Amino acid sequence: MSLLVVGSVAFDSVKTPFGEAEEVLGGSATYFSVAASFFTPISLVAVVGEDFPQKEIDFLKSRKIDTDGLERAKGKTFRWKGEYGFQLNEAKTLDTQLNVLQTFWPKLPEKYKNIDIVFLGNIDPDLQREVLQQVAKPKLVALDTMNFWISSKKNSLIKTLGLVDILIINDGEARQLSDETNLVKAARKIQAMGPKTLIIKRGEYGALLFSKKNIFHAPAYPLENVFDPTGAGDSFAGGFMGYLAKTRKFDDANIRRAIIMGSVLASYNVEDFSLRRFRKLKYPEITKRFKAFKTLTHFDTV
Ligand code: AMP
Fold first, then answer.
1. Which of 173, 262, 273, 274 is the right S-S partner for 169, CB 3.0 to 4.6 Å?
2. Which domain holds residue 121?
């Protein structure tokens, strides 16, 4: 059984202190799918416009991503423009053009309806709920969102949160969603909204997992060359969910392994602009960095 994702497919224009890229392939569902495809087949639900090149769809297909749920609509593809300062930790959104996303209403192909692991990527929370309603009996549902939706559609987002098992957001978003500055208190408030498992991403400081009973911390891989953090969050989610879909165990120990897999994929993604690094990434590099994570965090008892 494969993994279903709904999210954005985009053209991004990104500027970092190390360079810039104009109108390159991006989007939450794109980064997610390509990262997850190292572990499992993916079924993609998203929309592109008439301007989206066939060669990018062929690229997704070449990665075992089922694009039958990728609708081509009249109009232009979603566009996002962002800039990162010297710290590289947070993107400043300069422009968001929803374009075809504005009128998108997901309709799942019949064959997608029995998929039991679902990732509701960063997209309008109304659409996230709509996708969930079309899936017969999901075993595991995870969700990502961002400040844009927390500010503009908080009530709808809270409704969607009541339906999910895992929420993956960054620290700023966790604070915004809960109205709490302390992350532990924020986590408890968010868990009470629905998701019993919460992952708070903290950029170069790693990720925190709050489960029912435990808290776990994974570092980010200390890289010498970070070029573009765009898509790090979605690549993290893709590695995380892809690994869970492959191993099909949702206990705390496996969720911890999956978090490290997510961190591995995110660490590779930031080494270049757009999806360039993923296009040449090979599976043995993933296992090599997973082992490096183990060494990085190992210590003996006193
Ligand atoms: P992240 O993994 O958080 O860095 O996400 C980056 C991706 O999110 C970019 O490739 C954008 O195309 C996409 N994105 C930015 N804003 C939105 C939005 N409001 N809705 C959906 N996707 C977005």
1. 173
2. 3-297
